[in-house]
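Box S2. Input/output pair 1.
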Amino acid sequence: MKTTATLSALIGLASLTSAHYTFDKLLVNDVKQGGDNTYIRKHTRGYMPTKGTEILAKDFTCNTNAQAAPQVMTVKPGDKIGFQQAFGANGIEHPGPTQVYMTLAKNGDSKKEDGSGDWFKVAQSLICKAGNAESLRNDAWCSWKENNVNFVMPESVPDGEYLVRAEHIALHGAHAGAAEFYYACAQIKVQGSKATAAPGPTTKIPGVYAVKDKAINFSLWGSSTSYPEIPGIPVIAGGEMRGSADGKSGDKRVAAAGASGSSSAPATNNNAAAAPAAPSGGNAAPAPSNNGGNKGFGGNTSAAAAAGAPASSCKARRVKRSQS
């Protein structure tokens, strides 16, 4: 039985070694805007992920050596915004959630914004298809085989220029402390909003995740069929929540009621390094910390070891991609 479980885990890992990725093209209502890095900041990490203690580095904001993009895209509440993959990649084939964070440009100019201010979460996607433990290792996730991280701009975000940070967390190596982060920032101007108060709760990036957070050390290699821990801070009121912790809701997008998240998957702050700042607007309270022990945590590391979980390394497929 153990040999069979080990073989199954190794076969599963082989299916996850598709090429790494990043994002460089902006979509608005599913239409590409401009060219590569016209609105999304170019960085020097290429398509390699951030892992381990690298999430504590300053460059975790918009990625390594990210430089201001030449233009700022104007959108309105209700527009669908997408961050499309770079270097010819055409589908996310790593299991894990997506998040989108925003920070208001301090001087009204997103080209000059360094990301050191307060960030709030406007969207997250989790699991869109209920199934067994095997499906949690691949196509259960809402983002599976999609070539962009996307969300609908909430009505609760006031007018202004923002950095918008789209992120996918790949969990196939998370059981060994090697969750992979793929992310980039766009320069976006929100125009036509009726909101006046800055949304909350807020956080700092880096600082939104701690290295030992349960959400980014979750094991896919046990028997769990759900993802009960949500990374980072809660989605703001009116922000987008896609899927659920167990996928039983299907591929649905709903507006978050507030800082407590959805009823199917309560949004919790897993940040042991720093609690989120008090909301700068509205009445949403900061989410409670969720770092006290591992009780009730599905698919833990010991279960993964018993099932013969694979090593944490993930080799990028040897592909011919220009990084120029």
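Box S3. Input/output pair 2.
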Amino acid sequence: MAEMVKNWQLGREMEYAFPEARPQRQFAAVFNLNRCIGCQTCTMACKSTWTFSEGQEYMWWNNVESKPYGGYPKNWDVKLLSMLGPQPWNGRTYEGKTIFEARDPAKQTVTGMVALGYLPSDEEWRHPNLYEDASRGHNPRGESLPEHQHWGFYLPRICNHCTYPACLAACPRKAIYKRQEDGIVLIDQARCRGYRKCMEACPYKKPMYRGTTGTSEKCIGCYPRIEQGQATRCIATCIGKIRLFGWVDDPESPVHYLVHKAKVALPLYPQFGTEPNVYYIPPRWVSRAYLTQMFGPGVEEAIETYTHPDKELLGVLQLFGATDRIIHRYRIEDEEAVGFDAAGNEVVRTAIWEPVQVRPENRHNIT
């Protein structure tokens, strides 16, 4: 029997396997897609830390896809969107079916709940960089804002550590759990038997099967670092400074500000219904219709706010990549943005406005 739970991203209640039970605080991250250069530093930092062993060759807990054609596993989002079919929004309220509400009752597990999904083939896992740098086309006359006719962008992805994880709902072994202290979703390796129901149900395809152990594994949110007050490896090593970690339900967190106050950071495919906790600042040159399908109906407002930031937003954006410590609280001063750790200690101070260097007239304007 499904429970009715509140999903704030959908603006309504929805069906889920278990009663609503939110953690003490929720792991969350914001990725600014206007800054990502597709360098894959995050990908290799994660790979060299967590998935470098035998049987993990095709495990990329962090990957960076080139949209609109790239995806790992191949076509993961296009396939599920096609299975779900066209679904309506009414303003900010989602009136269509989530993957839980569109499930096939004939495929229920012993938990009594399964989500609409599919199990990718081995071939679909083989090419994490397929279509890398492939855009929608090329315009020899150039492009101009607000929307490019031909476009492409990089989409970095990790596990979303969802509030309503489909992987957790589908696991017949109850091997998947959500940590109360930080909302990180983990797989108990002692209980897992590798049935891959989590892989089938997860709409983002972030649980992955390891043949050498016969179990599924996934991004662990770098919880040993989180427990020490440090941001995840993918966030700390990002050279484009596109990532910021924080607690989405803490009003003092910069992540809470970006998601709930400025509303420039949006969830990935909120219509799936999992209430994902990784958020994205949409790229402002991309087709609005495409972005709305991907991030929901807040795209226009998010891009407008990002394009014309006030002082507070500009200051928070400068905190991205400014420290490898978790910023629990921030303060905007006259010329600087300041970040503080859980104990209230200052961990970073950065200028809000970057200096502009003008070459003297007797120097050529070259590098």
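Caption for Box S3: Residues 41-50 form the longest helix (10 residues). The chain is about 20% helix and 20% strand.
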